[in-house]
Amino acid sequence: MRHSVLLIDDDTEMSVMLTELFKRESVDLSVAEDGVTGLDKALNGDYELILLDVMLPGIDGMQLLQRLRQQHRDTAVLMLTARGDDDDRVMGLELGADDYLPKPFNPRELVARVRALLRRTPNTTMQNESLNVCGIVLDPATTEVKCDDAELILTPTEFDILRCLMQQAGQMVSKDQLSVAALGRKMEPFDRSLDVHISNIRKKFPTKPDRIQTIRGRGYRLIASL
């Protein structure tokens, strides 16, 4: 099975190298070298994953991501950020990125991260029956989610995190469990990505954001009933 991925990055040399590398991974890589072209491709193309650089000519990666999510496009997004720039990482996650990878990176590390996200999107490792827990109804077949009868627009990562919590409602789910289920990888030291995703989900609940409880230093728990 071949996969379709969009790379939005103005580094031509890297784009050529990654195009050749991904061919061996059964990935067809489309490339856009500026933000305007990248946004057009992201909105009008059919991609399973977008690799998005922060620093772009035209419109930057943050603006592009924001516009993409405003259009309710839920394609998974892996942000490529400057190493050590925590503000960019957190901002990208808050705007709806699924994961991030600091530059410069080992190309094999990028391939591993892409494989993990493609395996998880759609997630085939979890049960496919609909779930109805704590006022939330989640249908894996259609990826539709309602909370208190209001539709929730979730990113693929937010969807997988919520599904994992719903399947184990009333129980504490460790951060590593959630990270593997939603991102295809274990947590890294000082990794705040999961905390930001949980915060985003809570903000999207129309009422009672505390239905997802924090177990400090260990994980999270979705209460079984209101």
UniProtKB/TrEMBL annotation:
Keyword set includes Transcription: yes
Domain OmpR/PhoB-type as annotated: residue spans: 128-224
One annotated GO molecular function: phosphorelay response regulator activity
Domain Response regulatory: 4-118
Xref: Pfam families: Response_reg, Trans_reg_C
Biological processes annotated in GO: regulation of DNA-templated transcription
Protein name stated in the entry: Response regulator transcription factor
Species of origin: Idiomarina abyssalis
